[in-house]
Each structure stands twice: as C-alpha cells, then as structure tokens.
C-alpha cells in the first residue's frame, strides 16, 4: 500500500503527521518532581475514543517515542532531536530544528517577542527554574533535587548529599594481643639535631630577601589626619593629575578683623577721613570696628562683592604650575673613588733640607732620584742627598738663581742654572771616570767654533768657558726665567755648541715653555693661551684657550695628550688636547697665586703649589680608551711652610720613581713629603 493511499484510508492520521510535524505537550508538575525529558501522557497513552489498531509493524499510530513510561533516569532518555553533533546554525534558514527518531521533521516553535516573553516571565513564578534547551528547542524546568544538586556544586561540595568526604579512619591493624612493637630500631640521630638542609634553605631565603628577589606586600596605609590649611599642591591624589593647579589660599584673618579688636587697631575719625582722600587702590579695604558682643555685629556689607571677586580669582585668573625639584644635594656631587683606593700618594713631611740663607726659588731632581739640586735667592746652588738630607756640593754664583734643571739623561750628570741674563751648565762631578771624561768633553768650548748659526751678533747667544765653576756660560741679552731640557735636541746642540732661534712669532708675553715627553713638539704658555708648535715642520699645531686672567705655569702629562696650566688667580686648568681646545676641567683650589704645577713620571699624580703655603696633590688617571674621560680626584693638602714677604711655596717637584713630593718655600726650607 502506498503512503498516499494509506493516509487516505486511515482517518486517525492527521495532516500534521503527513507534513512531518511534531508537537510537544508539557506535562504537569508531579509531586515527586519528575525530571525533564519524560514523555507526556498524550505521547504514552492513546487518546480517548481512538479505535485505531496497530499497523502491520505492530506499532500504534498515536504512540510517541516510547510505548510506556520508563522509570530510568534522565541520562538514559534518548534525545528527541537525532541530528547528532551537527552545528545548529545550519538550520537557521529552515522551518525545522532537526529530525526525531522516526526521521520526521521537528518544527521550530514560535518565539515570543521581548515584551511577550517578559510578561510571561513575570506571571510565571517558576520561571527561575526553567532552562532553555537549544538542542531540542524547548524549555526544561528543574526539579527541587536538581536545584539542590546545582547549589551543592556551586559551593564546591559533593553532588550527592549522602556522600561523606571525610569518613572515619578505619585502622586495618589489629592491636589485640600484640606483645612486640612493629620496629625496635633505635631513634636516628637526625631527629634530635637541627637539619643542615633546612638551615641552608633559610640562608637562601634570607639572601634572596636582602637582594630584593623576594618581596612582601606592604600593608596599605590608612588615611590619617591632615592639616586643614595645608597647601593643596602637596596632596598626592591631586598632584598626579596634570591639569590640576591648586588655587591660591586666602590670607588668614588677623587681629584687626576681630569683632572686638585691640584699641591700637581701631583708626581714629581723622584717619578715617584721610582714607577718603586716598586713591581707591591705596585705600584700605577693611576698616576695623569694635562691637560689645557678637549679637550686635551687623551683616558684612561687602560679602557679596568679595565673594564675586574671589570667584573671578579662582576661575578667570590664569595660573601657572611651578615645578619644584626635590633634589638631594648629596646626589649632585660626583661619585669619586675613595682615597684609600688611590694610594700611594704623599701625605706627611719626612725630611727638611736646611742650609739656604734666603728663599729657595727652584729645585730639580736627578733622574735616578738619589740627588736633588736647589737654587736660592742668596746666590748659591746646592746638591743634596735625598735620603739623608746631606749637602754634597755648593756653588756660589753671586746672583739670585731663577731656575735649576737637571739633565734628563742618567749618565750625563750636568746641571743647568739660570741667573739674570746668564745660563750656567755645571758639572756635578757625579759618576765614574768614563762619565766624567765624557762630561768634560761636552763642557769644553773651542774658541774657533762660531758663537751661533746665524752670525747676527745682535741676537746671538755667546758660548763662554766658565773656569770659575768648571762649566759653560751662555750669555743672553735678556733675563732668563726658566730652563727646560730635551732628551735629544739640547744635548746635540750642546755637543756642537750651536744655538737655534725658533722661527715663531709669539702673540703675547711668554710665561713658561716645555717640551713634549717623546715627540718634537714645543709648548709655549702665554698669559692668555697655550701654543703648540711642531719643531720639525716649524708650524703651529694647536692653540689652547685657557680662559684665565694670567697663566703662571705649565706641565705636560707623560703620555703627551694632556696638560695642566696654573694661574695667578688660583685656578688650575686641565686640557685634553684630543677632546677640545677648551679646558676639560677648571679647579679653583688655591686662594692665592699658583707658582708651579707638575706631573709624576710614573704614578697617576699631579700637584700644584701656591703662595698660600699649601701644596695640593691630585689623582689624575688618563685612560687609553678615548671614549673615557680622565679621572681627577683631590687627594691631600700638604702644609708646613710659612709665608715670607707674602710668598709661600715657590716650586715643587715629584720624585722620578717614588710617590714623593719635594717643595721649596720662601721660608728657606726644602721639604720632602712621603706616603
């Protein structure tokens, strides 16, 4: 029989069945609270008056998904929609939601609008127990047992109330009739002494806390009392806001604004009349008055006016935020290393060399460091033994000595002395016979040798034999203030008795001059600048602007790239010639004139001496890395000399091998400072 014919003959099959419709009749709530998903009576029992008989397969036409009501739980009830794990959005454009177990379409229910669903939820008292089942397109009402189960799950409890998560312990061992313990072993020693592993762990925690690897939450500070008249700019909760600018505070009332002020604050009638003659800007805005009691005080006549002016000040007057920098003065100081890390350097006086009868103007140390030469205003030149202070030799030159300079070659023991317009080159009679023979050949003048290379007698320097002192005398036509040796150039000229005039035109009066330690470069210090010349190329290399009023001394670092310049205003300038022509550092250390500055040959030290009778010792480290600036650290102030005729320490020199400093003063003394 065809399906169409069967439908025509069977009067119990409705049109809705033919169109594969499905209607869900909701069952009434039982007293026992049946779970959702159970078949209704219309689905389990045939309708009244239905005479339909089972079809050829033995099934009733009006039967639902189940033949009879089942007592199984909800987990065992098969879902009505049998589409499986198919995404439900595939059926968005279809009139049905899926298919039942017989393959018939399950039509979608008509959904209420928002207003209708809201009114339905308000009228339904059990709406909070209903859950929408999107899979079957129906609303399921939870039973009381299911609600209790959900509440227990929300409280992190077991789903079933009869489950005990903490059952009583059941001892499986039977102690009845036991005569011996389970173990008769002695207690181990580790149970009676502290654990070393725990101690190590505690130490690790302590170190981590000190290093800041482990941090603890700081307790929140509660808002305590605050000052009522405090400036609003100090409040943290408002100062963090960039657009907030606190309004200026009004002046607090004084005694004159009291209702009963003292008599001296109350103006007389004449003073009140004089106020009327003043300009409005100069007139006092408040005139004190006296009342016997507060009940007799009238209303303030300018209250509204002052309130309006105050509003104008607050809202219309522009205000500018002033940033206050809270900087610790200690943080502005440069972080310098400790003086203990920079030792050795001279700190205390060790030996005093006495013998001169007038101010000692100049000193010079022999290259080996065993002897020291000194020149004085008393017209004498002396040689001292450094370690004992014994005077070895003395020359009476008959004129005040300006400068003494020892030859830098260790095997040529000769001394240059400048006095007036003459320069004496003396034989110190030190060394063995071979060295003395060589020195005598150098200090012998041949009369046939021309006096200078230019032949101009007006500007030449005359070389004369000094038989009185056993040396050579160089006769100049102007006063010689200082003498400087070069390791190669001056000995070469001394052996040939030649004089060379530098072809440089100086702009200003020359104060001091010195040679480069290793290259043929000559430094000339004038009052305002330092000029650097190349002797081979005979040209100006660089000009250094000191920025000082009047320079007085100059010294070149053993490396040759840095130099220091002292001035008569007590300032000391450090120049880094690779960096700039301006001073790298300017130190204001002496209150009076600086007479000399000097570098140490091997230690990172330099010193300065002044007419204030003090010598300053500095640490000056020059690094080979060009990106790192020199390190300058003040170390020590050496005192001990006394002033004479306004003069203090006139000269200072370092020992060539030890961190010792020699000072010569106007008090006729030479002092040695050691570490």
UniProtKB/TrEMBL annotation:
Positions with biased composition (Basic and acidic residues): 1-15
Keyword Iron-sulfur in annotation: no
Domain BOP1 N-terminal: 91-346
Pfam families associated with the record: BOP1NT (PF08145), WD40 (PF00400)
Spans of repeat WD: 353-394
Keywords, in A-Z order: Nucleus, Repeat, Ribosome biogenesis, rRNA processing, WD repeat
Highest taxon in the source lineage: Eukaryota
Gene Ontology MF terms: ribonucleoprotein complex binding
Any GO BP: maturation of 5.8S rRNA from tricistronic rRNA transcript (SSU-rRNA, 5.8S rRNA, LSU-rRNA)
One of the record's GO cellular component terms: preribosome, large subunit precursor
Subcellular location per the Swiss-Prot or TrEMBL entry: Nucleus, Nucleolus; Nucleus, Nucleoplasm
Acidic residues compositional bias, start-end: 16-34, 42-54
Region described as Disordered: spans on this chain: 1-93
Residues annotated as signal peptide: none
Role: Required for maturation of ribosomal RNAs and formation of the large ribosomal subunit.
Protein name (database record): Ribosome biogenesis protein BOP1 homolog
């Amino acid at each position: 029989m065809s399906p169409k014919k069967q439908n025509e003959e069977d009067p119990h099959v409705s049109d809705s069945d033919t169109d594969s419709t499905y209607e869900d009749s909701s069952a009434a709530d039982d007293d026992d609270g049946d779970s959702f998903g159970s078949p209704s009576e219309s689905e389990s029992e045939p309708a009244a008056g239905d005479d339909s008989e089972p079809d050829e397969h033995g099934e009733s036409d009006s039967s639902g998904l189940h033949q009879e009501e089942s007592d199984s739980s909800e987990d065992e009830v098969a879902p009505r929609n049998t589409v499986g794990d198919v995404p439900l959005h595939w059926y968005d454009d279809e009139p049905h939601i899926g298919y039942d177990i017989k393959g018939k379409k399950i039509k979608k229910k008509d959904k209420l609008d928002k207003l209708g669903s809201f009114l339905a939820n308000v009228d339904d008292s059990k709406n909070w127990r209903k859950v929408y089942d999107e899979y079957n397109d129906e609303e399921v009402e939870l039973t009381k047992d299911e609600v209790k189960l959900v509440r227990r799950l929300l409280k992190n409890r077991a789903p079933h109330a009869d489950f005990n998560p903490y059952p009583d312990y059941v001892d499986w061992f039977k102690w009845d009739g036991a005569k011996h313990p389970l173990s008769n072993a002695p207690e181990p020693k580790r149970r009676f002494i502290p654990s070393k592993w725990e101690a190590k762990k505690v130490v690790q925690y302590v170190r981590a806390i000190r290093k800041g690897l482990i941090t603890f939450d700081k307790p929140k500070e509660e808002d305590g009392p605050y000052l009522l008249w405090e400036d609003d700019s100090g409040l943290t909760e408002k100062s963090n806001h960039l657009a907030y600018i606190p309004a200026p505070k009004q002046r607090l009332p004084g005694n004159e604004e009291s209702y009963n002020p003292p008599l001296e604050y109350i103006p007389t009638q004449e003073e009140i009349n004089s106020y009327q003659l003043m300009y409005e800007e100069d007139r006092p805005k408040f005139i004190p008055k006296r009342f016997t009691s507060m009940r007799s005080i009238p209303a303030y006549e300018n209250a509204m006016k002052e309130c309006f002016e105050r509003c104008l000040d607050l809202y219309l007057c522009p205000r500018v935020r002033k940033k206050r920098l809270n900087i610790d003065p200690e943080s502005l100081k440069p972080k310098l290393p400790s003086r203990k890390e920079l030792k050795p350097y001279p700190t205390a006086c060790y030996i005093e060399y006495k013998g001169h009868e007038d101010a000692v103007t100049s000193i010079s140390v022999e290259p080996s460091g065993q002897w020291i030469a000194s020149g004085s205003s008393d017209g004498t030149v002396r040689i001292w033994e450094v370690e004992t202070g014994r005077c070895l030799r003395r020359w009476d030159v008959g004129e005040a000595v300006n400068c003494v300079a020892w030859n830098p070659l260790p095997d040529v023991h000769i001394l240059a002395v400048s006095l007036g317009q003459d320069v004496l080159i003396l034989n110190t009679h030190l060394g063995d016979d071979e060295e003395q023979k060589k020195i005598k050949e150098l200090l012998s003048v041949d009369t046939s040798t021309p006096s200078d290379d230019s032949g101009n007698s007006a500007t030449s320097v005359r070389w004369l034999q000094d038989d009185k002192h056993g040396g050579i005398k160089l006769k100049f036509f102007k006063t010689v203030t200082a003498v400087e040796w070069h390791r190669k150039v001056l000995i070469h000229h001394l052996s040939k008795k030649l004089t060379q005039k530098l072809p440089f035109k100086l702009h200003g009066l020359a104060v001091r001059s010195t040679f480069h330690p290793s290259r043929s470069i000559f430094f000339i210090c004038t009052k305002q600048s330092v000029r650097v010349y190349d002797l081979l190329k005979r040209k100006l290399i660089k000009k250094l602007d000191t920025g000082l009023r009047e320079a007085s001394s100059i010294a070149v670092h053993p490396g040759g790239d840095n130099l220091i310049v002292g001035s008569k205003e007590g300032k000391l300038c450090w120049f880094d010639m690779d960096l700039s022509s301006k001073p790298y550092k300017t130190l204001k250390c002496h209150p009076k004139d600086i007479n000399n500055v000097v570098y140490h040959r091997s230690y990172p030290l330099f010193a300065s001496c002044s007419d204030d009778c003090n010598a300053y010792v500095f640490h000056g480290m020059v690094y080979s890395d060009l990106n790192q600036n020199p390190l300058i650290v003040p170390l020590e102030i050496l005192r001990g000399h006394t002033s004479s005729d306004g003069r203090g320490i006139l000269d200072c020199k370092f020992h060539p091998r030890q961190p010792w400093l020699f000072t010569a003063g106007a008090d006729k003394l030479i002092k040695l400072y050691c570490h």
